[in-house]
Design a protein that fits this description.
Blueprint: E1 6-10, H1 14-26, E2 30-34, H2 37-41, E3 51-55, H3 63-72, E4 79-83, H4 88-97, E5 101-104, H5 109-121
Parallel strand pairs: 1-2, 1-3, 3-4, 4-5
């Protein structure tokens, strides 16, 4: 039996992180939550994640810095970035880091799931249900 895709949710806001993990699981994917980028980087093995959802602004490493770090280390899981900030340069910074998209909080759960599905389409060869 093929494993369900595994999605990482990285956000320092515990209630939002738990809600997003629940949302992702409600549509049949596996999900793991992390309070910080550094916590995610300690996950083993990182290559098992099919998609990453990350807040941009967190204590320590930002979501943009995380994406750049992953790319530098050959980890190519698609990343969806989320933010409550509205500076116009954020979209360019997110795009420049290699993020698939940037969603502004608050966003509809359906919009996030559509982007997760798009991310999974772009990551062929990973474990799919």
């Amino acid at each position: 039996m093929t494993e369900s895709p595994l999605i990482a949710v990285i956000d320092d806001d515990e209630s939002l992180r738990n809600a997003l993990v629940g949302l992702v699981r409600s549509v049949g994917y596996e999900a793991r939550g992390f309070a910080a980028a550094e916590d995610f980087l300690r996950a083993d093995p990182l290559q098992t994640f099919d998609c990453i959802i990350s807040d941009i602004q967190m204590p320590g490493m930002s979501g943009i810095d995380l994406k750049r770090h992953l790319t530098t280390h050959g980890i190519d899981a698609p990343m969806i970035m989320i933010t409550a900030r509205s500076e116009p340069e954020l979209a360019a910074d997110a795009r420049g880091s290699g993020a698939l998209c940037l969603l502004h909080k608050p966003f509809e759960g359906d919009a996030l799931i559509r982007w997760v599905e798009k991310a999974l389409e772009l990551a062929p060869g990973r474990g799919r249900a």
